[in-house]
Amino acid sequence: MQIERLFEIIYILMDRKNVTAEELSGHFGVSKRTILRDVETLSMANIPIYTKQGKNGGIALLDNYVLDKTVLTEEEKKLLLLGLKTLLPTGEIGKGMLSRLDPMFSVRDTSCIEVDFSRWSNPKKDRTRFDLLKNAILDHKAIQFSYPSTTGEVTDRKAYPLKLLFQSQAWYISSYCLLRNDYRTFKINRIISLEVLNEHFNPDDYKVPEYDGYEENHETGRYIEFKASFSPSVAYRLYDEFAPDTIKRNEDGTFSVEAKLPDGEWLYGYLFSFGENIRIIAPEALKDKLKEKLRKMEKNYEET
After folding, report:
1. Residue 145 · residue 104 · CB < 8 Å
2. What is the pLDDT confidence band of residue 101, given thresholds at 50, 70 and 90?
3. How far is CA 204 from CA 201, 276, 290, in A?
4. Could you please report the per-residue DSSP string of 275-289?
5. pLDDT of amino acid 274
6. Which CATH number is 123-216's, of 1.20.81, 1.10.10, 2.40.70, 2.30.30?
C-alpha cells in the first residue's frame, strides 16, 4: 500500500539521511517514477523532503525535523521505546518496528530491558500457551482446557477469553466461563491441555467486572488482616511478595509484616511455606487455625 511505503520512506531517510531514487525503487520493487511521485506526495503533506542532483545527490529530509517537531522529551522518548520493548513477547510489535523508531527518536540502545513471560523451567511451552491465549483474545475465539482448583479437583472448562492480567507475580486470563456461566480468572500456569476453538464470540456482549473471577483463585473471597514476625533468612521473599510499606525491620534483625491476604486453605498453605521462619502474632483465630492444622499434620506421622 502507498501509505505504508510513504511511512517507510520516511523511516529510511531518518536512518540513512540520504538515499537515491534507484535505491528506493529497488527496495520497494516499484519504478523510479513511482518513488518520485511518492516524494512529491510527501512534500505536499508538508514533510521537509527534498532531492539534490550531482555525484552525492539523492533524496533527503531536513536535519532534525522530526526531533524539532516532537513534543516528547528525551526521557519520554526513552521510556516510550522501553515500554514498546516490553510488548515484544506478546508478538504485537516486532523488532523491525523498534529499529524504525530508533532513528526517529535518536535512541540507539534499548538493550537495558528484556521481558520474558515464561518460567525458567519450561520457557517454550509457556510462550506457546501465552501466544495461543493472546491470539484467542484478539480473534474473539473460545478456548477449551482443563483446570485444577485450589483443592486439586480438575474440571474441563470452556470459556471466552477477554483479558490478560499480570497480578502478584503471575499471569492470569479473565474469561467468561461457560461451565459456571459467570466471569472467572484463571492462572495461566495452571491451565492444562489448552485448545483454541473455531467458535467465535462477540466481545461487546461481555465486560470483565472489577473483581472478576476472584473466587476461582481464592475460595472464600474474604480477606484477613494479619501480623507476623519473620526471620532474616526469608527477607528476600518478603520484599518479593509484600508491599514495602507493610514490612518493618526490627532492631534484633527480624522483620515484621502487617498485611491483608485472602482467607482460606490457600492462606494456610502459603504461611506454612515459610516453615520455622514465621511466627504469627495476630489475629488469634489465625494462630489457632494453624495450631490445629499442625496437630493434624503431626498426627499423620504418629506411629500406629
Report:
1. no
2. low
3. 9, 50, 45
4. GGGEEEEE-HHHHHH
5. 93
6. 2.30.30
Do 112 and 157 touch, CB atoms closer than 8 A?
Answer: no
Rounded Cα gap, residues 235 and 140, in angstroms: 43
Domain range 2-67, CATH class: mainly alpha
**pTM (predicted TM-score):** 0.46
Determine the average pLDDT of the residues in 199-220.
Answer: 69
Query: pLDDT: is 247 or 165 the higher one?
Result: 247
Q: What is the mean pLDDT of the chain?
A: 77
- Return d(Cα 289, Cα 287) in angstroms, integer: 5
Range(s) within the chain of domains with CATH label 3.30.70: 223-300
Residues forming beta bridges with residue 19, ordered by sequence position: 59
Alpha helices in 120-192 (DSSP H): 123-139
**What's the gap between Cα 204 and its chain centre?**
23
The pLDDT of residue 217 is 46
* Helix residue ranges per DSSP H, the chain: 2-16, 21-28, 32-44, 65-69, 74-85, 95-105, 123-139, 214-217, 235-241, 265-272, 284-300
pLDDT of residue 212: 44
Start-to-end CA distance of the chain, whole Å, equals 80
Q: Quote the pLDDT of residue 172.
A: 87
Q: Give every CB contact of residue 44 below 8 A, 6+ residues apart in sequence.
A: none
